[in-house]
Amino acid sequence: MKKCNFLIAGISQNDLDQKVWERLERLSQQKLLRLTDVDSLLVKFNPVDSRFMESMPNLKYIGILATGFGKIDLEYAKKKNITVCNVPGYSTESVAEFTFSVILDHLRDLERAKRQVRDGNYSEFGFRATEIRDKKFGIIGLGMIGTRVAQIAQGFGADVSYWSRNRKRDAEKKGIKFQELDELLLHSDFLSLHLSLTVETQNFLNRKRIAKIKKGAVVINLAPMELVDIKALSERLKKDEISFILDHSDEMTNEDLQKLLKYQNCIIYPPIAYISEEAKKSKQEIFVSNIENFLSGNPQNKVN
Amino acid sequence: MKKCNFLIAGISQNDLDQKVWERLERLSQQKLLRLTDVDSLLVKFNPVDSRFMESMPNLKYIGILATGFGKIDLEYAKKKNITVCNVPGYSTESVAEFTFSVILDHLRDLERAKRQVRDGNYSEFGFRATEIRDKKFGIIGLGMIGTRVAQIAQGFGADVSYWSRNRKRDAEKKGIKFQELDELLLHSDFLSLHLSLTVETQNFLNRKRIAKIKKGAVVINLAPMELVDIKALSERLKKDEISFILDHSDEMTNEDLQKLLKYQNCIIYPPIAYISEEAKKSKQEIFVSNIENFLSGNPQNKVN
Asked: Least CA distance to A115: which residue of chain B?
């Protein structure tokens, strides 16, 4: 294969810069397409099941403009010798920095401060704040994002510990201490979730674990909310014993969302953790490079 | 002297915790006072000139519940053998963390994000952000606060440089690079001022220097606004070439304030940078310890 017959599904004009579209065009045969002509499928969040793949007997490549690939039938793709590539790690820094944005905003009550100034009131009266320094900062899941969050927390002078399925000796050498999960839940003043969603991690923060979270803790989850037992969480929030910060993406049902919106100690953001300009650029770069690498017979970021 | 005849001026019930008031009471003679009985004066921002001191012929000690001592006639106090002690450094961490709070809030548009969620809109559409990582982070004045800001910026992976009257070799060994002031102004993406206000630093960020600040830079000043030529600043803000973040304390005239309030790219906070619980506690601790140390003949934090 020298050029592709792309099918682009669920990726809109907004997802890619003009220059990237132009690069895609250069990689494409640019002719009228029937499904049976398609050899390359580009998707973002669209489900790609075996039936859809069957309709494209010449399909050789699926490129995902995202990290997650849970909606692609990887086994079927493998059987049919279809290469599936994703875009990993592009938003590590963006999400790690956002984690501290929302923590600090919560600790400093910036929204109220700015509103007060707009109303002509410059008093510091009634503002309270606590510092990150010397607090226990717990990280669940020490992948790329978790590791960067740990490093930034160390910059703030926090006492950083982690739990992960596998011990990370390199991180431990740099002062990021391993703790058993229960210990981490019981003692952390800040608790940040950085697990990827799999069959095993679904409902990871279950009722029993939520009950163990330290009173007064600030819990941050910028990972999928499927990691969390929402009913148990909302009951703990109701007691006003912890704060919870999340960014809402479509996976949460409206019913679950309504449960959480009731609580002032639950702070909900749109899904903007990953959207830095640097991340967007890097995401597009990896996405197109994946195609180029596939065409040159050296696929990168293959997930099947 | 074993106990004090305190005069407390301009320090209100709110300034000190109950326990600290009780400690003060234990250090006090607790009797009806005439000015001529006063041997110890406790103040926050009250001016203490030579005439006021003359009215207290037995005055031996002035304790300031603040870092600044510009309103005390130190020379006269020295001549009269009056020990003046301040509270230095108590808010270092609180101010350094606040610096990143306001930077990140600005980069991530958190206020709009939260407002949008309250209005039932969970879209990330229209949000833009940039990262701190790999950006040039310039620090003017590498004292205690400047140094902590530099260290936290390094945690974020920024490229950190500083300018200060005196070279700081220890910091340079840790990767905080010295730059000439003009270079720092011309190249920094973030520029944070951490100078103390003196006769020499008044109007430090003058018209010529403001003109040199890199287009697109975010400038943060949580130090006194007397460091800045407000007219020149407002003219640069008008061109929408830089953003400026400050906390407003009483020193700025209402006229100056009105000049700045006009610009969306000027973000003004109440003076809440220094108010963390940890800082408050440490401030009171140092304030009372200063008195105890003075009474035991070993004054600390003497400024005259």
From this structure: B269
